[in-house]
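Researcher: Good morning. I'm working through a list of sequences from a screen, and I'd like to move beyond sequence-only analysis. For each chain I'm collecting a predicted structure so we can compare shapes side by side. This is the next one on the list. No need for commentary yet; just the structure.
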Amino acid sequence: MNKSQLIEALAKAENLTIKKAEMVVNTLFDNMTEALVKNERIEIRGFGSFKVKCYDGYQGRNPKTGAVIEVCEKKLPFFKVGKELKERVDRTSEQ
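Model: Good morning. Structure tokens for this chain:
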């Protein structure tokens, strides 16, 4: 499912216009993004949680030339699946 399919599903399920459903989805994603930018954790019970993980810099190698390069430290969003979602997905894959 992509973003436009999510918008269409929300519009259909809640009897909203596409514009209103798009506004709801965009607001949700914008707020989640802002929370992660502020290094806040997002928890959606039964679904999972999002947080920002910090990775230290390190020395790597350019695979083409073999030259040593310095890889800067970075922060990346990380998703951890919730128990209920994990079990539900696993159950459906067994059938």
